[in-house]
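User: Batch of two.

Assistant: Item 1 of 2:
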Amino acid sequence: MERAAVVAGLGGWVPPTVVSNDQLAEVLDTSDEWIRRRTGIRERRWVSPGQSTGDLAVEAGRRALASAGLEGVDAVVLATSSPDRHCPATAPEVATRLGLGPVPAFDVAAVCTGFVYALATGAGLVALGAAETVLVVGADAFSTLLAPDDRSTRVIFGDGGGAVVLRAGSSTEPGALTGLNLGSDGSLSDLIEVPAGGSRQRSTGVPAKTEDTYFTMQGQTVYAQAVRRMAESVQETVERTGWNLAEIDSFVLHQANARILAAVARRLGRPPERFLSNIETRGNTVAASIPLALADGVASGELRPGHKVVLAGFGGGLTWGSMALVWPRLAAHRTVSPEPAAAATEVGMP
């Protein structure tokens, strides 16, 4: 039996502030009907003033550790594209706040594919014997990067954190990660970006325009790329795993919007009900979307032990990736609570 990284804990957290479509319609040229028709989103959660990606990551990590029955891990990998600061990385502070001691901790930036990339990184640490346990977190406070008057992006994104604990185990046991597929295309990097704030802009010595400090996306082209890349990546992972598409119980894709999920389902020829979705109440939570969808799937009973599951993401870079596992039996821990708490009792809404 080969050594493998096995999912041993799951946790998620979204901030308590609910932002409904009707609230956005009060300040933007939009409506609840327009947003739902184009995205499938009814509401999303946003951070409160002073709340950050690190706060989301800590709460999600705490719940994942509790789910795994652990107080410590050997490493922390945090996927985010909205770090608390440009420098240093957010992960070391998350590890300290969780009381994990001087373990290696670092960030991975792959936007909405970030969680898959971070999972691959954590699994690599386990496979190499560099770690017996790894906390992998996806967290983003992406609302902080959105232009206040941009209807095309402001209605889509929500904030949140999701996490899993990986442990060393056997490649034949439930929860073992397999079939990894990753890819990127930097020639299309300008499709999804925050133009200003990096070394390229800062080295010019020219102050950034205000509009260039916010997130931008070329929606129609991104839609086509997302559908194609996630569908192709899923097919590659299923083949590498030795399964076939008809065997997959649950496809857990990045929650970009409902139309993209439906289009991927059509392209793969699989029933839409096999594709877990929490987009209606979460929005697009970027690196947190896959683990939050897992947590909500466990809460709803849609995701059960023994299910064959494929995870897939697509995001800026462009980047994409996927992997597979047989879903294990995990202790459940709450995703949403009015205030951050040291521990929780069940996955899902309070």
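Item 2 of 2:
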Amino acid sequence: MAGLPQMPNNFLQYCNSVTKACHPIWLYSCYIDQLHQYLSANPDSTNNNVIGYNNKHCWPWDCRMRLIKPDVNLGRAVFWNIKQSLPRSLTTIKWEGTFVSIYSKDDPQLLFSMSGFEVCILPKIRMLDGDQFLLKDAVWNLTNEQTKERTAQAFLCISDEGIQQFNNHIQQVLMSSGSTTFSKIVNKWNTALIGLMTYHCEAVIHTNELLDALIKTENKIQTLTHFCTGMSHEEDQLIPNLY
């Protein structure tokens, strides 16, 4: 009913009449599934659902979710269904802070955020003809444990939340430094850098926004140490340029 992984069927459609007639069951649908009711409760005659649909702008254009109408409606329906299932007396979720990634025949990648990382998974069967597995930093090969075959690749970069957490940490260092000594300021800066590099590893060099943030925060730290301690040029060289 779903079709081949390389060429999945459209909703309620088959690739040909022979496949459709080869089995007595043509359709399976759960009658309590609320996804079918989304467009009834939220009609979209002017295609406004595409407007305001969140996307992962940290990836290049060809790696983002393609805002095709069926996928957008399905993404909003999934969010709507989950939101309606949550007791509002306990919690709720907002669309502005949510991203629903749809994997379909029009969207070959699966995008999500996890623990400060942005992940883009591209299955092998959805790669273009001639494309090969990449062997570089921030790209992980996903393998089938039974056959040991590489089935997909996961591309990594640091999420906006991870970058903001680093900026907030450095801002706390700047605000709490006051008239402290040069060594304490540098130790806090070095500790923040080591923690960043240890946790995010190779994803750092593939996140341009973080590299820009490192340059800005380093300049702030150098300005602070010059202002508070009157640091000489020789001491300035003691601040490592880890990125």
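The radius of gyration is 25 Å.
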